[in-house]
Amino acid sequence: MNADAKPALPADSVQSVAEGAIDGPLLIVLNPGSGAQDADDARRRIAAVLDAAGRAHEFIAVEDPAQLGGIAADCALRAAASGGAVVAAGGDGTINAVAHAVLEAGCRFGVLPMGTFNYFGRTHHIPEDLEAAARVLVEGELRPVQVGEVNGRIFLVNASVGMYPQLLEERETAKRQFGRSRAVAFVSALYTLLRNHRVLRLWLRCDDATGRVETPTLFVGNNRLQLEQIGMAEAACVDAGALAVIGLRPVSPLGMLALALRGTLGRLGDADNVFSFPCAALFVSAGGGRRPPRVKVATDGEVLWMRLPLQFRVAPARLQLLCPPPAP
C-alpha cells in the first residue's frame, strides 16, 4: 500500500466527489482495442464532459496490451501521490488489470465501460453510454467494492478453471477474426460447448467441508448481475461478502448445450448437473501425485497458467470505486 494514498474507505462508507473525495486529476487508462467503439471518438466524448465540468484529466492510451500492467501501475502511483484517481476505459479485462494496480497503490478508481459485456460497470450502475459514465466521474460518490482473488491475482467478475478458460480463448480468437460483438461471442461459445471436454478431478475445501469432484469446469463468481442472469441463487452471497462456487458434472456435448440454454434462460441453478455453494475461501487441489499439475485459469476474461493448489478468496482490500449517486 502506498504511503501517500488516502485512507481506504470503511466497508460501509460513502463519500461524494463534491465533498472532496478526489482532489487530483483523473488519469484515464484507455484501451483502444476494447469493444466496438472508435477510440478517438470515445476520447473526444469523454473529454467534452470533463472539460465542461472543469475536471483536470489526462488520457494514457495503451497501444500494446503487454504494457497495460506497467502503465496502470505508474498511473496508480501518480494518483495516490496527487489525491487523484485512475480511470479504466475498456472492457472487463482492462478494468481488472487497472484495478490490480489501484489496489496495490491504494488510490481511487473509476470506470468507463467500453467492452462487450461490461458486467463490472453494469453491476455498479455505471452507464454504458460514455457521456453518462463520464459524468459519474464528476458527480459520483466513492463506494467500497468487494474483490475476489485466486493465488494473488484479483478478479472482479469471475475466475474459472477447465472448459471456461478454453471458451474464453476461442472467443477472443473469433472476435479478432469477425469483430467484437455479443453475437460473435455467442456463436463462438456454442462451437466450444459442442465438443468433448477434459474432466478435472479435484479436491475442494470450503470452511470445514472437503470433497472430491469431477467437473469439466469450476467457476467462482464475484458479480451479482452475472450470477442473477444465469439463474444462480448464490447471487445474493456476493453482497454478503462471499463468493459463489459453481461446478458442472460431466455431461455429453448435447448435455452441455442444454446447460448453456438453461443459463441463457436464467435457470442454470435448477439443473441436476450443476452444483453450487457460497464460500468466503475455497482451496482447490488435485489430490495425489508427485508434482502438482498446471491448469489454465481465467480471471475476468484473461487466461493464464497456474499450478495447483489454487486458493480462491475474498480479497482483504476493497476497491474505492466511483459510482453514480442514488436517485433523488
From TrEMBL:
GO molecular function terms listed in the Swiss-Prot or TrEMBL record: kinase activity
DAGKc domain ranges (all copies): 21-154
Cellular component, GO, one term: plasma membrane
SUPFAM superfamilies the record matches: NAD kinase/diacylglycerol kinase-like
Record-given protein name: DAGKc domain-containing protein
Domain of life: Bacteria
Species for this entry: Azoarcus sp. (strain BH72)
A UniProt-annotated Pfam family: DAGK_cat
